[in-house]
Specification:
138 residues; mainly alpha; two-stranded antiparallel sheet; 2 strands; 6% strand
């Protein structure tokens, strides 16, 4: 039987060079890009809502502020898990509840999508470079 090799555009990323914390992304996958754009829109809404709620919390109410931060982390982690697969947030943060680590992940994967949009994707849909929303895919 003859075989056919098809190159995948998947990228395997080891978080902090830890082979037990590998996340796969595929900058060419249109469905993944769509999920990322939707996630990005929801991220912005969560952050705006969080900022609004923070203004309603008094400066000395640390417990409420902490609870609000935890809720934001949980929402963002759930979003990442839905887009990139189960336990993505846990792999990114190594089990810590650190919003900044989730942000670093999103910023860290952005160049992979930008590179794809500028190269291979330009052959099929050159407008992708001009129309991509802000956020993970810029």
């Amino acid at each position: 039987m003859e075989g056919l090799k098809i190159k995948s555009n998947k990228v395997r990323l080891a978080i902090n060079d830890d082979e037990n914390r590998v996340i796969e992304i595929n900058p060419a996958d249109i469905s993944e890009k769509k999920r990322i754009q939707e996630m990005s829109t929801r991220f912005e809404k969560y952050i705006k809502l969080n900022q609004k709620k923070l203004k309603e919390i008094s400066d000395d109410d640390y417990d409420s502020a902490l609870k609000l931060s935890e809720e934001l982390f949980d929402k963002l982690a759930l979003e990442l898990n839905e887009v990139f697969g189960k336990d993505t947030a846990k792999k990114v943060t190594d089990g810590e509840k650190d919003i900044e680590m989730l942000t670093q992940f999103c910023l860290g994967i952005t160049p992979y999508y930008e590179k794809y949009n500028k190269s291979a994707n330009a052959k099929y849909n050159p407008k992708m470079n001009k129309t991509a929303k802000k956020g993970v895919m810029k």
